Amino acid sequence: KAGVTQTPRYLIKTRGQQVTLSCSPISGHRSVSWYQQTPGQGLQFLFEYFSETQRNKGNFPGRFSGRQFSNSRSEMNVSTLELGDSALYLCATKPTSSWGEQYFGPGTRLTVT
Amino acid sequence: QKEVEQNSGPLSVPEGAIASLNCTYSDRGSQSFFWYRQYSGKSPELIMFIYSNGDKEDGRFTAQLNKASQYVSLLIRDSQPSDSATYLCAVNGEVTGFQKLVFGTGTRLLVSP
To answer: What is the DSSP string of A32-63?
Structure first.
């Protein structure tokens, strides 16, 4: 099975711009979660989608949003970028029948200048 | 008190030794526990998960769970230089939400030849 794919892998944006990141889950995985990883805060949960519905959301401002499509692919959007949004954004997918284990994609490295 | 705590390390062990990585968690409702390995510049890779008290072995890796003490550990036998990485402990459960993993900040392991 192909793994989780994320595009783009690297992105450089300017403060105030917006960005959209994409994630394609492992075939058959319907749950998609997004995490932000920074050296200072570690891995932090952004949100999780299942069957096009957001089921859980982390403590991030409303500038961070996401959605999921009927084929389980997911996108996350960050508007009005700030320098502090520079991070590795990771997508993780979970099998429907599981104990909660999640499988991560390679991530998108976002740099905001 | 952080939800998931790990010693940041680095934990240095010689090649062939047993590396012992520890993790404590605060939510007594936590149900599943995960160990991820993350190489520098890469995304987290699931190594093992455990949900019952006791030991679970997979090759050179053993996960140990003690729910009464709110403690989970990972033992790596016959450590190899290729095991040098950051090891992340993660949990999920009722309070945090089963769709969400809460991560510790990770323990950096260095295995010297």
So the answer is: EEEEEEETTTEEEEEEEEETTEEEEE-S--TT
